[in-house]
Amino acid sequence: MSPSKRSVTRPEKRCPICQRPFQWRKRWMRDWARVVYCSDACRKGTPRGRAVGSRLGAKTPC
Known about the structure:
- The chain has 1 helix and 2 strands; from the N terminus they run ββα.
- It is mostly loops and 62 residues long.
- It has a domain at 10-47.
- The protein has a two-stranded antiparallel ribbon.
- A hairpin with a 6-residue loop joins strand 1 and strand 2 (21-23).
- The chain is extended and about 55 Å long.
- The termini are far apart.
């Protein structure tokens, strides 16, 4: 296997809003210590998915 194809272990953090893990990215190289959220939506506090209690996926009992 060529050196460029090897699996690299990258630093990981967990988003405080959605609890999803996210990994280091090259564009965050200078700011990794200040990166807290996994996305702009979490940074803005926009609710999404079931992790924050969305009613879109909820089933109601019959």
